[in-house]
Amino acid sequence: MTPERGLAYVVPFHTDAARLHRTVDLLRAGRERHGIAEVLLCHNGPALPAEVEARLARQLDPSFERLLHVDTAGVGAGYRLGIENARAASIVLSASDLPFGFTDVEAWREAEGRAGGPIPFAIGSKGHPRSRLHGRPFSRRVATLAFLWLRRAFLGRLTPLDSQGTFLGERSLFSALAREAPSDDWVFTLELATAWTRRTGERATEVPVTLVEEAGDSSVSLASDGLRLLRGLARVRAGRGAG
Fold it and tell me: 12 near 96, Cβ under 8 Å?
């Protein structure tokens, strides 16, 4: 699969370099079946310790995987770095532990088949009614609903059910939308979805995923994370960086 025809997997990471070894193995195993042309491991924040970077680099196949770095911390900075460096026709903005496996890509392709053509912008969404969320703590479910209500209160009914899932779509489109998404943190993906809505007047296509999480309490805080969300929503609604 040549980069120009396949998928580019953008995998941001900050301090979780150890889990990437398993992630790289999974992506290699799914390379042919899912048309993965390249993997971009996008480290964001202070430079990795030399021994950690060297150990990771030794595992990589330079013809398939690249290790990139940006000094700015934040998942948005990692996503932007990957979008800027991708060569493949389509992009998957994923996470360092591939929380959905390949169920997001499979659901995206199935949705394109039903639509009879390409879907240029999609979200692998935990909020989709057909998503399966095994072992998801009750507190995380409450937070998800509360944050969805806040997004709709600020941005209206076209806000996505899940703005923190995986994002899948055409590289050229992501490059254009990224110019309208100035945030370096997790608000970046919400800005992508909002920029898409501004351009088309439609909510992003959301496809179901299977998420497996360990049982237990959630680290999500309705107070502190809710405040961060309010600040981010205020920036998005004000149209910061809009084209």
Answer: yes
> End-to-end CA distance of the chain, in Å?
34
What is the CATH architecture assignment of 7-237? Alpha-Beta Complex (3.90)
Polymer length in residues for the chain:
243
pLDDT, one tens digit per residue, over 8-18 is 999 999 988 88
Instruction: Give Cα separations from 104 to 167, 171, 219 (angstroms).
Output: 9, 17, 24
- Write b or e for each residue in 87-98: b if 16 or more Cβ atoms lie within 10 A of its Cβ, otherwise e: ebbbbbbbbbeb
Domain-wise residue ranges, the chain: 7-237
Amino acid at 220: V
Q: Which three-class secondary structure state does DSSP give residue 14?
A: coil
User: What's the Cα-to-Cα distance from 142 to each of 95, 138, 149, 166, rounded to whole Å?
Assistant: 22, 6, 11, 20
Structure tokens at 39: 């993997």
The tens digit of pLDDT for each residue in 140-164 reads 566 667 677 777 777 777 789 998 8
Q: Is 229 exposed, middle or buried (0-12, 13-18, 19+ CB in 10 A)?
A: buried
> Residues 6 or more apart from 178 whose CB is under 8 A from it?
79, 80, 83, 84, 192
3-state helix, strand, coil in the chain (%, to 5): 45, 20, 40
Bridge partners, 205 (sequence order): 122
Calpha distance 219→8 (Å, rounded): 30
* Torsion angle defined by CA atoms of residues 82, 88, 6 and 100, in that order, rounded to the nearest 10 degrees: 10
